[in-house]
UniProtKB/TrEMBL annotation, chain A:
<feature type="transmembrane region" description="Helical">
    <location>
        <begin position="20"/>
        <end position="40"/>
    </location>
</feature>
<keyword id="KW-0812">Transmembrane</keyword>
<keyword id="KW-0472">Membrane</keyword>
<protein>
    <submittedName>
        <fullName>Uncharacterized protein</fullName>
    </submittedName>
</protein>
<keyword id="KW-1133">Transmembrane helix</keyword>
UniProtKB/TrEMBL annotation, chain B:
<feature type="transmembrane region" description="Helical">
    <location>
        <begin position="192"/>
        <end position="214"/>
    </location>
</feature>
<dbReference type="InterPro" id="IPR036259">
    <property type="entry name" value="MFS_trans_sf"/>
</dbReference>
<feature type="transmembrane region" description="Helical">
    <location>
        <begin position="87"/>
        <end position="107"/>
    </location>
</feature>
<feature type="transmembrane region" description="Helical">
    <location>
        <begin position="424"/>
        <end position="444"/>
    </location>
</feature>
<dbReference type="GO" id="GO:0005886">
    <property type="term" value="C:plasma membrane"/>
</dbReference>
<dbReference type="GO" id="GO:0022857">
    <property type="term" value="F:transmembrane transporter activity"/>
</dbReference>
<dbReference type="Pfam" id="PF07690">
    <property type="entry name" value="MFS_1"/>
</dbReference>
<keyword id="KW-0812">Transmembrane</keyword>
<feature type="transmembrane region" description="Helical">
    <location>
        <begin position="291"/>
        <end position="313"/>
    </location>
</feature>
């Protein structure tokens, strides 16, 4: 994630910002939880393919 | 067409120090919602019974939505590039949610045309704008890993169906206690109408969150340690830019259109009939060695490979290149289709593994194409170019089912009552399509310099003027 910082030359006179780690974690959790739910449900369904 | 100031591109230009890893979840928030389009089969039977309509009459709702996806992505692509991802995501959310609300009204009042208009036309416009909304933004934030970036977002489209299918079953069970999700029980029309209302609320919240957190990089921004000149060293990759209007005049655009069309059509050939197909391949007289539950498991497995392929193959393309990865999708795809047609009925594991890899290539074809476009045409209007290319998806959405259903109609039987041999002609047609796609990909060369924009990179504010050149 360290590669996300802007290059100073391109940033003009704007004040630097800091993206809170908590916000990034929250955003990933918000999309990750439903995705994990979908994956779990689908793996459960797909497992019948191997269970006979 | 002006947008409210809080949605404007100028309002979401990231300040120095902004962490780009906030952008993929913004993109996923949209794609996970619109990916519901692939979960319509969950309530298909319910709608057939509710409207007392044929399967075709209900199935056409999905077809309308996919056609509208391609058309709206093509028509609004330049608008999306000009106004930025927040305006696009908000607009997509408005259309997608309105589509569900109008569709719900149609179901509740038993007016099928409202469902066509709502979910099909209005929702389909939301699909198209939503699908392309984060793509060019992600490519600009991840110039070092465009395949990874677009793979993450477009994986979300595959993931959306994984979420919506079980969620819809559970919600319909909640609204209709007589429906328990097992074979033989069908949810009531009222429960589907309520499902649409619930999804509308959930998707409005989720997509708004994506629109709220998305940002665009400032002009000239690049990740620390990234040297754009290293990109140019790769074959086919340009640091120049081509406008959307000029891109469609190049042979490269149409070659990629053919590539996408062939890859998608071939994948739909399996996806369209996955459950009955596996049962038919292992049929012995009246009965099949594959039970309905196992067939459902097969469909689930294909969904996983469809989603996984979008991420894994697109990310791989960052290392081996876009043209080589499409040679894999199409070339290995040809071999796998031949195996499926000739040896697919000899063992279940051969059938399952072959089909799963084919579907992973289908997903990979979708997620790698924006990065391929970036390589050939630059980042200037890659979203608009991508939008125009998605008409290939619409065309494939019509051609794929037509081919497979046309061939099966000749066999004079219903899927679920056929045998492996009945599918063989369709599978060999897909082999032919993949050969055409393979040749088209081989013919892709760098775009001629005459199509390039002037060398100084255009700013977003000048895009409108350049777009009409």
């Amino acid at each position: 994630m360290s590669s996300s910082a802007s290059t100073p030359a391109s940033s003009g006179s704007q004040q630097p910002t800091h993206t809170p780690t908590g916000l990034i974690a929250f955003a990933w959790t918000l999309v990750g939880v439903p995705l994990a739910y979908g994956l779990y449900q689908t793996v459960k369904t797909a497992s019948s393919l191997f269970g006979g | 067409m002006a947008v409210p100031s809080f949605l404007a591109r100028e309002r979401i230009i990231a300040r120095p120090g902004f962490n780009r890893w906030l952008i993929p979840p913004a993109a996923l928030a949209v794609h996970l919602c619109i990916g519901q389009a692939y979960a319509t089969s969950v309530y298909k039977t319910a709608l057939v019974e509710h409207f007392d309509a044929s399967l075709t009459s209900i199935g056409i709702i999905f077809s309308i939505a996919i056609v509208m996806l391609g058309l709206s992505a093509a028509v609004f692509g330049t608008w999306v590039d000009r106004n930025g991802p927040r305006a696009a995501m908000a607009t997509s959310a408005a259309f997608w949610v309105t589509g569900f609300l109008v569709g719900s009204l149609g179901i509740a009042t038993e007016q099928l045309w409202l469902l066509y208009l709502g979910y099909g036309v209005i929702g389909g416009i939301g699909l198209g704008i939503g699908y392309i909304s984060p793509v060019s933004t992600l490519i600009k934030w991840f110039p070092d890993r465009p395949g990874l970036a677009t793979g993450m977002a477009i994986m979300g489209f595959g993931g959306g169906a994984l979420i919506a299918s079980p969620l819809s079953r559970q919600l319909m069970n909640f609204y209709d206690a007589d429906y328990d999700g097992t074979a033989g029980t069908v949810p009531s029309g009222e429960s589907v109408a309520l499902l649409f209302l619930t999804l509308a609320v959930l998707y409005a919240l989720f997509m708004s969150f994506g629109a709220l957190i998305v940002r665009v990089p400032a002009d000239g921004w690049k990740p620390v340690g990234f040297d754009p000149s290293t990109v140019k060293q790769k074959a086919l990759v340009t640091t120049d830019n081509v406008s959307a209007n000029n891109a469609i005049r190049t042979p490269q655009f149409w070659l990629l259109w053919i590539v996408l069309f062939c890859n998608v059509t071939a994948g739909i050939g399996i996806l369209e009939q996955a459950a009955p197909m596996i049962q038919d391949f292992f049929r012995d007289g009246e009965t099949s060695a594959v039970t309905a539950a196992t067939a459902a498991g097969f469909v689930g497995l294909l969904s996983l490979f469809n989603m996984g392929g979008r991420f894994v193959w697109s990310t791989t393309s960052d290392y081996i290149g876009r043209k080589p990865i499409y040679m894999v999708y199409l070339g290995v795809g040809i071999a796998l289709y031949v195996v499926l047609a000739t040896l697919g009925s000899s063992a279940t594991w051969i059938f399952v593994i072959t089909a799963a890899i084919i579907i992973s290539f289908y997903g990979g074809g979708f997620s790698t194409v924006p990065a391929y476009l970036r390589d050939l045409f630059g980042t200037f209007q890659v979203g608009a170019i991508h939008g125009r290319l998605l008409t290939a998806w619409s065309a494939a959405g019509i051609a794929g089912p037509l081919i497979i259903n046309g061939v099966l109609d000749l066999a004079e039987g219903e899927p679920g009552e056929l045998v492996a041999g009945d599918y063989r002609p369709a599978l060999f047609i897909m082999v032919g399509l993949l050969v055409i796609g393979f040749i088209a990909n081989l013919l892709v060369k760098p775009v001629a310099a005459k199509w390039h924009e002037p060398t100084s990179p255009p700013s977003p504010s000048t895009q409108e003027a350049s777009a009409v050149r």
